[in-house]
Amino acid sequence: VNNAGCNRKTVESLVKAGAFDSTGYTRRQMMRFLEIDNLMDIAAKRHRDKADGQVSMFDLFEEHGTDSGFEEDIPEPDGVEWDRRIKLAYEKEIMKFYISDHPLSPYATTLKQISDYSLAVLMRHNDDEDATDNQIGEQELIVPENRSITLAGMVSNLTPMVSKKGGRMAKFELEDMEGKIEAIIFPQPFEKCGAQLEDEAIVRVRCRYERSDRGSQIIVSDISPIYLEDAKAQHSIVELKIYSSAFNQLVSNQLTVLLHRYPGSDPVVLNVIKPDGGFLRVELPSTVDSSSSELHRELIALLGPGTVNI
């Protein structure tokens, strides 16, 4: 690619958004090629040389269809990806939304159990400002205004503020997997629980829902962190299978690295199918978070369809 029309920043953005995932290289390794191995500089030099009429001995061999005996030193895919949170943060930075997964996926069940309403309900309720109970729909709840409710989600776009009297306060967005809403916390509750506020924190909030001509928002009175279910929860077993003919050292290394990226308490069992139809069943030393949809997708990408059962 001529980098007059596709510069380094463009390629970096494409890598972060996952445009090259189908190559077999991870986004982390692709970015390493750009940052450390200077591939863009090498490509730019080759384009300049060709434009100036300068060709290398290797280019001459290529033009005549002859194998020069020399090849570019292209490394094998190493299977090492960015941490899940970094990967998703880059997707949000470039695309303004998540592609491969959502940071709240492991918390999905917990959020539904905690929240009185999904944020999508609040958003639709705000859009249907003049609607009656029946017009909004039988299954749609009318959100009470100025009454204490519980919501749950992830903090984003946190902005510290100072009141007219000098008290610390903040505004932020509360986001779940279906929507988001503006939130504000005034000095008195901020003094009590403001320490729980940081971007990407997963929280439960007690609040009042307000709707006005400027849109809807929640007035927060209390915040507490949300943690994934503890080790007392019943574990799911991640069952994997692969034919012995397809199982080699590279696949083994990639599988090990992949599992380490999703630490949790759920055991992983690998069934290696032999040519005679028998199989070798091995419990792997890694334990994972089986609720991660991203883990599930990456395992299928590595081992193939029909190889993963949770």
Provide keyphrases for this structure:
single chain, flat, four-stranded mixed β-sheet, 310 residues, alpha+beta, five-stranded mixed β-barrel, OB fold (Dihydrolipoamide Acetyltransferase, E2P)
Helix and strand arrangement:
Layout: H1 8-17, H2 27-35, H3 39-51, H4 57-63, H5 84-95, H6 108-114, H7 119-127, H8 133-136, E1 148-162, E2 168-175, E3 180-185, H9 187-193, E4 202-212, E5 215-225, E6 238-243, H10 249-260, E7 263-273, E8 279-288, H11 293-303, E9 308-309
Helix pairs in contact: 1-2, 1-5, 10-11
Could you characterize the architecture of this molecule?
This protein has helices spanning 8-17, 27-35, 39-51, 57-63, 84-95, 108-114, 119-127, 133-136, 187-193, 249-260, 293-303; strands at residues 148-162, 168-175, 180-185, 202-212, 215-225, 238-243, 263-273, 279-288, 308-309. The protein has 310 residues and is α+β, with helices and mostly antiparallel strands. It folds into 3 domains: 8-95, no CATH class; 105-225, Beta Barrel (OB fold (Dihydrolipoamide Acetyltransferase, E2P)); 238-309, no CATH class. Strand 4 and strand 5 form a beta hairpin. Helix 1 (8-17) packs antiparallel against helix 2 (27-35) and helix 10 (249-260) runs antiparallel to helix 11 (293-303). It is flat, with a radius of gyration of 26 Å. The two termini are 42 Å apart.
